[in-house]
Amino acid sequence: MRAEMLNSILNELNGTSADIEASGVISTDGLMMASQLPAGMDEDRVGAMSAAMLSLGDRTASELGRGDLDQVLIKGKDGYVLMVYAGSEAVVTVLAKSHAKLGLIFLDVKRAAEQLAKLL
Questions:
Q1: How far apart are CA 94 and CA 10, in angstroms?
Q2: d(CA 28, CA 39)
Q3: Helices 102-119 and 2-15, interaxial angle, to 10°?
């Protein structure tokens, strides 16, 4: 039941913008809790990479005196990876196209993260 609700929120998130290609809810230790990933994308790899980047982001923000981590944004030639905490034990990871309107995606991801945090 909870997995269905998590997937429903991700499905709604993916539907908010044609620029969102994939999304997932991942525990802070790297386990995929729910996902809306394209065929051929490895859930375990997405989970492990998200946990590693989140951990590094937390440490960097702390060590450099930037306060609590809010989000991690990675820009590559072919698009973006955005990670936002959904409560203290999970993160929402979103893959977006290179020409995405990031302001709208940030807003949609933040709203989804708030909904997910209530469920977790």
A1: 10
A2: 24
A3: 170
Which DSSP state fits 65?
A: T
| Interatomic CA distance for residues 82 and 70, integer angstroms | 11
Compute the half-sphere exposure of residue 95: CA atoms within 13 Å on the CB side of its CA: 17
Question: Six-digit token pair at 110?
Answer: 């933040």
- Yes or no: say if 100 and 79 are a contact pair by the CB < 8 Å rule: yes
Alpha carbons 93 and 106: distance in angstroms, whole number: 11
Q: pLDDT for 5-59, tens place per residue? A: 999 999 999 999 999 999 999 999 999 999 999 888 999 999 999 999 999 999 9
Three-state DSSP class for residue 25: strand
The residue assigned the tokens 């209530």 is 118
pTM, full prediction: 0.92
